[in-house]
Design goal:
The protein is an alpha/beta fold. The chain has a single domain, classed as Vaccinia Virus protein VP39 (Rossmann fold), CATH 3.40.50. 37% of the residues lie in helices and 23% in strands. A 7-stranded mixed β-sheet has the order 3-2-1-4-5-7-6, sandwiched between helices. Strand 2, helix 3 and strand 3 form a beta-alpha-beta unit. Helix 1 runs parallel beside helix 2 and helix 4 crosses helix 5. Bound molecules: S-adenosylmethionine (SAM). The site of S-adenosylmethionine (SAM) has 20 residues, from helix 2.
Length: 201
């Protein structure tokens, strides 16, 4: 194998490793800080997996709750299981501030308008079919209270989420690239953030 190809492959692998071990956490810390949580909110993490973002949310809460919902698909995340997330929460000392639910993002097991903030990290693109992904966005907005905020981070389909949020009448719908820290091997595999506010407050 030519040396230049080897160097490129190693650079790609290095970027991927950095994104998964550090970049995702650094970037989400900024996203969560920008939400300016007071600490008493009910925050829902769609597709929380083993809890990378859920636990960061919980660390920012006092009397509030970080609620995670997932189908615990190991094809999407290795070692994915409700017990694993609970174990991680105990290790971080935030177990009493989280709730875990098993449920599908296209039919959330929650009442309307029960959350102040809804976040999602690298989860909705795993749902097959644009219609089903649109339904997941509908569900995210349904469970958000009027004036509540939404922040979805994903590697693909972000334009779909943006369009659906606009159709639903969400306010201040914005999309931005999250930069090299969330390049999963290179700029062709970047990550974007879509934020919005539910209308009606
Ligand atoms: C790549 S993992 C991301 C996990 C976590 N949010 C993170 O950033 O580390 C995607 C997650 O979405 C979940 N997921 C995929 N499709 C889902 C669906 N239809 N309903 C609920 N969860 C789903 C998977 O089980 C997995 O936990």
């Amino acid at each position: 194998m030519p040396v230049v190809v080897l160097v490129l492959l190693m650079a790609q692998f290095g970027l991927f490793l950095r994104a998964t071990r550090r970049g995702k956490f650094e970037v989400w810390a900024g996203v969560l800080d920008s939400l300016g949580l007071r600490g008493d909110e009910r925050v829902l993490d769609l597709g929380c997996g083993r809890g990378a973002v859920l636990l960061m949310v919980a660390e920012r809460l006092g009397p509030g709750r970080a609620v995670g919902v997932d189908l615990w698909r190991t094809v999407d995340q290795s070692g994915n299981a409700e017990e694993a997330t609970l174990r991680n929460a105990r290790a971080e000392g935030v177990a009493e501030r989280i709730e875990l639910h098993t449920g599908d993002l296209t039919g959330l097991p929650f009442e309307d308008a029960g959350f102040d903030v809804v976040v999602s990290s690298l989860a909705i693109h795993n749902i097959r079919g644009a219609q089903a992904r649109a339904t997941a966005v509908d569900e995210a907005v349904r469970v958000l209270r009027p004036g509540g905020r939404l922040a979805i981070v994903d590697i693909s389909a972000v334009g779909e989420y943006q369009a659906r949020l606009a159709e639903l009448g969400a306010q201040d719908v914005q999309v931005r690239a999250l930069g090299w820290r969330m390049w999963w091997g290179g700029p062709w595999m970047g990550t974007r953030l879509v934020t919005a506010v539910k209308a009606g407050e």
